[in-house]
Fold:
Amino acid sequence: MTHPPTPSQTIGPFFAVGICWPDGPDVVGEDTPGARRIGGRVLDGAGDPVPDALVETWQADPQGRFAHPDDPRGPVSGGFRGFGRCPTDAQGRWAVRTVKPGPLPTPDAGTEAPHLDVSVFARGLLHRLVTRIYFPDEPDANAADPLLASIADPQVRARLVAVPDRDDRLRFDIRLQGDQETPFLAI
Structure:
């Protein structure tokens, strides 16, 4: 007797019990110089909030070093984790507390503009979505960034740059589909 293959499974929604932890959204402590909030909402193709998504960030420290033993540029600043994880709330909101990373070297001796690497996990996704968040106060670095420069349409490119929000916060909404879909990377 043969059986048909089992159907594919999505990766959620199990985040609230499976992979969250109390200090997840805090890449740095509250009293860290330069600490700020970056966040927004995860929205579906209709513009409705996704209340059961998970947003992960990974970034370099202000000197452009990663909290990873294989980074040849040396150890990171004290208390810097480099990694944040935040589940969305009922309105699809997420936020992390972090500091602006430094620029990163590229293999061709250029530099990448300061940015956060972002992974999004949500219901209906078989794999994570990957994007980046760039900083609005880095126009020259953003113009020279290889990934941003590879996006021909300036309106699409602008969707990867956070916008200033209240209280020195930055806002970055993640749109999973639709006319204003966030650019996602093929990783």
DSSP finds four helices and eleven strands in the chain. The CA atoms of residues 38 and 185 lie 20 Å apart. Residues 139-144 form the longest helix (6 residues). The first strand starts at residue 36 and ends at 43.
